[in-house]
Amino acid sequence: MRFVGGHVSISGGLPHAIGNTVKIGGNCLQIFAGSPRLWFRKPFADAEVRAFLSGVKQNNFGPVFIHALYLLNLASSNTGLLEKSTTSLVADIQNGALIHSAGVIIHIGSHLGVGFDTVKDQLVAVIQRVLGETQDCDLILENAAGQNGKIGSLSELAYLLKKANDPRLKICLDTAHLFAAGVDLRSLSAIKELTQELKDLNLLDRLVCLHLNDCASDLDSHRDLHANIGEGNIGLAGLRLFINQKELLHLPLILEVPGDNKQGPNLKNVTLARKITTLQ
Ligand SMILES: [Zn+2]
Ligand SMILES: [Zn+2]
Domain of life, per the record (predicted)? Predict the structure, then answer.
């Protein structure tokens, strides 16, 4: 059975993520390890870790991912922002280790126009520092749609993985970001080209998660706008084609769709996602 779930809230405490996942029909999940609007992070308390882990076990859930703050920017030239980004990321990974998370997924950040080459050494150094200060939980770099200098094209990810050279460094691909970055997931030949590129860049073995989102923006628009499954420009047929490629069939699917009234992934979307995977 394939692992399909969504980003769920821990509002009210970490163990609430269990019920929230059951409610949407998920068997894997993604959370923020604290408030998505605040830099402040504190370690999960023992009691909530125990309750959460027993919930994961009772429900036979697959991987638990943590999404890092959207606020962070590892490419920032502002030392204050860079320090806050690094500190919160280290705290997220430490919390990830406590709950046996499959990894902390990050949007690397933006070079704000100066170009990847200008910031790449800093990125490698920060990634190595974060991995050096943590253990027992992976760091997962997500691909970007490419707007406003956002870092995370496949070649950039490949560069960072190669240079940082750490087995705990992994990647996550978001279907909406791929489409907005110009990969036409409605076309089998474009998907085949993508999987070949992933192989050529040594990224396929490091790919541990798919963010399954339809895309509300146009192909190659570089705009990061998620849509409900089947309601965007990729569409149900494109998403089905992509997730069932043999190279990708083992990967968990995490939805980050708007749902109804922007309440986030819901039962309808997760059910639809489960319906289109061939691995029942
Ligand atoms: Zn994503
Ligand atoms: Zn996105």
Answer: Bacteria
